Amino acid sequence: MLAIVGTVPDKNFPITHGLLSHEGNLLRIENATIDINRGTPALMAAAVLTAEKLGAEAPYGFLVGDIGHGKGSRNLYKYLTEHIGEFDFDTLTFHYLQPIAHWHDRVLGAIKALHKKPVLIADAGFMYAAKMSGSAGSYDLFTPDLGELAFLADESSPHPFYTRGFILHENNKAPELIKRAYTHNNAARNLLVKGRRDYVVREGKITATISEPSVETLEPIGGTGDTITGIVSVLISAGYEIAEAAEIAAQTNRFAGQFSNPTPATSVSEIISYIPRALDETLGDDLENIKEGSSRA
Amino acid sequence: MSKDADSGILIFDSTSEVISAENVLKKNGWQVRVMGPPPEVRTGCDLVIEFPLMEELEILRILKQAGVSPKEVVPVSSPLLKPVDLFNVKDFGGHLMVRAANMKITVDKRSLVIVNISGGGCPDVPYLAHEMTGMDLHHAPSPRDIGHTLCAYALQLAYEEIQKRCLP
Known about the structure:
Chain A is an alpha/beta fold.
């Protein structure tokens, strides 16, 4: 089973965990319903719809409220450190958490102590913490955008807010940045770099690039990177090889964006609703084969 | 990077305190800079304020009066990281997008309503997006006032830039 860990922008939201489901524009976890317009709920909603389309089991979620103070994130880090051993997940995806290196290390330590280590995926704040603590190599997949790739490439940078002047945030520089991130051991074993052109990387080698369909108006829309991470997480948990899952996810996200015919004012929730149709387009006959088996592996 | 033997850094418990202290010092006319901390004091999503060491007492007095005293003051001994100094502006016709570092803000040029906020990875990004999206540039809260992290700080830079470009 896939588990997704992140935050919601409500400081009073307690640590909540359970199976995830989707109702219209809302995400449901336990007794709570959450707007899916942005952040981890958008990732989770994309994952729920992908799992439904694949006939896979619903993903599990761990959420806590945090509006940037870090208190909720620290509580969730602590909870996971103490309780992760009580669960059995094949894939774990970490998302919008306050990047706190020492708490990251405690959570990673607890995961490494598990009988079977799950596939580890990190995005957003938790990816920042993973890189900053020097643990990038412990992860199976990072899903950075181009600015975050520049941060991974700059071995002295503690956050994407700081990258040295020679580290350029330009799409045509992505291969150089990828190489540099691996040289300094600041990349996961696989990368899915999200941008005007998406790059799939396995052990430092670019295995695929995806640039079509190109929808210029997706760039301003918050959450379009989160949805890719949700899709790829489900595909990996369903048995796809990581680089292949990354390529399918990037392609699917582009189709979903195109189908939504977005303007710069479009909400990501509109795009999410097109993910099932986009999966039809990307997976075609493979989708039926997946549904017939319990997993692809 | 910069290294200045006459500089000190003010270290705070949280990025929101850094943002408050920067506001106080700038309002009092000090030319301070928000920077990335040196490795020996780095803990996570953090910022420090670089200031002229010779002015330490006066600066600490002002901060104490404002209720935002730093937890530590140390001389600069390692190079400090400079924030990304990069704005990217994209005109979509009816909408304008400004990116600063890892954060983007997009407004409807006619109504001045913020229609999207994207980028970033700290947990106040969804919060800021929730609070600011749908508000116009005259009435939206400032990331400096309600944000807490480096991502909020980057969004503040983008917000100021888009105000410059869109407001008379």
